[in-house]
Amino acid sequence: MSGxxxxxxxxxxxxxxxxLNGGGExxxxxxxxxxxxxxxxxxxxxxxxxxxxxxxxxxxxxxxxSGSRRTSGDVPEAIAAAAQFISESLSPxxxxxxxxxxxxxxxxxxxxxxxxLFENANDVxxxxxxxxxxxSLNRAGEQLTGYQRDEVSSTxxxxxxxxxxxxxxxxxxxxxxxxxxxHTRYEINLVTRDGRRVPMEVHTSVIYQxxxxxxxxxxxxxxxxxxxxxxxxxxxxERLEEEAKRIAHALHDEAGQLLSSVHLALEEVxxxxxxxxxxxxQAVKDLLEQMEGELRRLSHxxxxxxxxxxxxxxxxxxxxxxxxxxxGLVIKVKGSTKGRLAPPVETxxxxxxxxxxxxVVRHAQATRVDVEIRQKDGAVQCSVQDDGxxxxxxxxxxxxxxxxxxxxxxxxxxxxxxxxxxxxxxxGHGTEVLITIPLGSGDVAANTAR
Length: 450
Hints:
By secondary structure, the protein is an alpha+beta fold. Helices cover about 60% and strands about 20% of the residues. The chain has 13 helices and ten strands. It has a five-stranded antiparallel beta sheet with strand order 2-1-5-4-3, with helices on both faces. Strands 6-7-8-10-9 form a five-stranded mixed beta sheet. It is elongated, with a radius of gyration of 40 Å. The protein starts with a helix and ends in a 12-residue tail after the last strand.
């Protein structure tokens, strides 16, 4: 018993005596408070029954100091009356027990729902300890990997990961044990029991116990179909670029030759005309020169030959110069790719910057744009940042139209090369578009140094 029990017994006895002598609701309220005190001191129901018994013995004992004595007929009446008193003192225990039962029932119902979700999820759901050993795997995981649940405890998560992606998986486990990021998203190739490779998108979070990390729980989704769609989109994009290149060369070379021939023909005609008629012919020649300039612009925007000949940075500098002259914006391009990238990657970056600059011109009300290319963490990043009006990102990306479609196009180009697209913007504080594509995407990167 608690060291406070003697004092509690004295208080309980006094309150019980008061109640038996007609103390009424006030004495019952003290019984309730004494029950709460006993519960806080760690006493149980049996100990409260013993406490009540001792108090009753004291109350029913002859009152030697006053010389009075209870008659035998008073005892049953006192015991019956005291029943209400002990019931009131035990009510905090009943309330606590009821709360425990309700909480336990809710916990069991929640656990049942979790188990149903765990078992019936279409995605793979798993847990590991901090050594990377699997501790649970749902039915979808069994079906995909070929491993049964009773084999899980002896299987390391790393055994299911393709060798080239092991550093990613091990890094996640190590960072979790060291108190790293609580939520992580990454992509790996999973190796099934029969040797098949399945591309997976994995989301993991930390399992805590008593405030410290004890494991990892994760959801992994088979993204085979998405990868096929990205590959198909990449081959769509590549065919479009080839067609754009063909049309651009036709505009630049064939249409340019025809216009040159027209110029020569007009020169011959001009020599045979009187001076007044030559002036009118000059106006026609001026229109032809404007047409030539427009054809060159269209040819460049369809497919700049400088991108094929010199690479991404010179092409972006040329693009920035043309957009700056047309719009009045100050556009600065800086950084390096540390060599030529694969043609699909250079094209994706060029088209993304082109679309981003078009958005700035149309919507941003900006005065300056900074374009930067850099290598970071095994990838190439391109940032396009303006000082314009900014916008609500989620609202714009959720609608189909104008800037929404342009940004979605940038995201799809990056996704087709296993890259990512992010946009940061706040109304009144400008916008940054960030495209990241892994090194080596879209065929092996070219080795020609700039």
